[in-house]
């Protein structure tokens, strides 16, 4: 039904055809992280931020908050055109946004490259605009970078890992690398969803690949 209503969800919407959105954020206050016990917008001194998209943001966020050195996480929308989109709007693929996880980390305890290693080992970066049965541009694999250094590390990682995925019988890596734009926080009920609902839907986990970023020849 969505296909007939919203067209091809695997084709990126143009700015002219994107939903108009709204001026007011859908999340008007920042709740405390249910696991890490800090406001979900907190960025402690000395921390850095990574923005990662790899399908439904519930699963990627849970993987992130379990990592030593990660001090905060939040889910939201990035990479599209619609200001302050809702979850329902993003799921139409008419906002251009990807479901994205904001990962705040302490670089003294976990590096950006190590975060990307976990990212590439726990989703399928070779299926364009989908993860499993989740289909649409909102489920694309993407890395939104906050610095030239992050962009270099991300692009180098793809160059290093692409042959490994191909040799394992997958297609080429389709992960988009682009500068981070505005991160629109998702609604409160989506924040730490899998802590609220431990048996909730999640299609993320080890994909069978070993991705030792930075140590490949």
Automatic annotation (TrEMBL):
Keywords: Oxidoreductase. It is an enzyme of class 1 (oxidoreductase). Residues 50-203 form the Peptide methionine sulphoxide reductase MsrA domain. The active site is at 56. Its EC number is 1.8.4.11. One of its GO terms (molecular function) is L-methionine:thioredoxin-disulfide S-oxidoreductase activity. It catalyses: [thioredoxin]-disulfide + L-methionine + H2O = L-methionine (S)-S-oxide + [thioredoxin]-dithiol; L-methionyl-[protein] + [thioredoxin]-disulfide + H2O = L-methionyl-(S)-S-oxide-[protein] + [thioredoxin]-dithiol. One of its GO terms (cellular component) is cytoplasm. GO terms for biological process: cellular response to oxidative stress. InterPro entries: Met_Sox_Rdtase_MsrA_dom, Met_Sox_Rdtase_MsrA_sf, MsrA_MetSO_reductase. Belongs to the MsrA Met sulfoxide reductase family. PANTHER family: MITOCHONDRIAL PEPTIDE METHIONINE SULFOXIDE REDUCTASE. Has an important function as a repair enzyme for proteins that have been inactivated by oxidation. Catalyzes the reversible oxidation-reduction of methionine sulfoxide in proteins to methionine. This is Peptide methionine sulfoxide reductase MsrA. It comes from Parenemella sanctibonifatiensis.
């Amino acid at each position: 039904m969505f296909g007939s209503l919203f067209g091809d969800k695997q084709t990126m919407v143009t700015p002219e055809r994107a939903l108009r959105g709204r001026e007011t954020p859908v999340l008007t206050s920042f709740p405390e992280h249910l696991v890490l016990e800090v406001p979900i917008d907190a960025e402690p001194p000395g921390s850095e931020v990574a923005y990662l998209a790899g399908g439904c943001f519930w699963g990627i966020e849970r993987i992130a908050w379990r990592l030593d050195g990660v001090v905060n996480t939040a889910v939201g929308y990035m990479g599209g055109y619609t200001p302050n989109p809702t979850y329902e709007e993003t799921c139409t693929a008419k906002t251009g946004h990807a479901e994205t996880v904001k990962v705040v980390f302490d670089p003294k305890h976990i590096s950006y490259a190590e975060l990307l290693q976990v990212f590439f080992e726990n989703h399928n970066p070779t299926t364009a605009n989908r993860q499993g049965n989740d289909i649409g541009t909102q489920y694309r694999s993407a890395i939104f970078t906050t610095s030239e250094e992050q962009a270099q590390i991300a692009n180098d990682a793809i160059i290093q890992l692409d042959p490994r995925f191909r040799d394992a019988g997958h297609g080429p890596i389709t992960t988009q690398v682009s500068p981070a734009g505005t991160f629109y926080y998702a609604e409160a009920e989506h924040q730490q969803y899998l802590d609220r609902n431990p048996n909730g839907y999640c299609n993320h986990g080890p994909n069978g690949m070993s991705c030792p970023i930075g140590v490949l020849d």
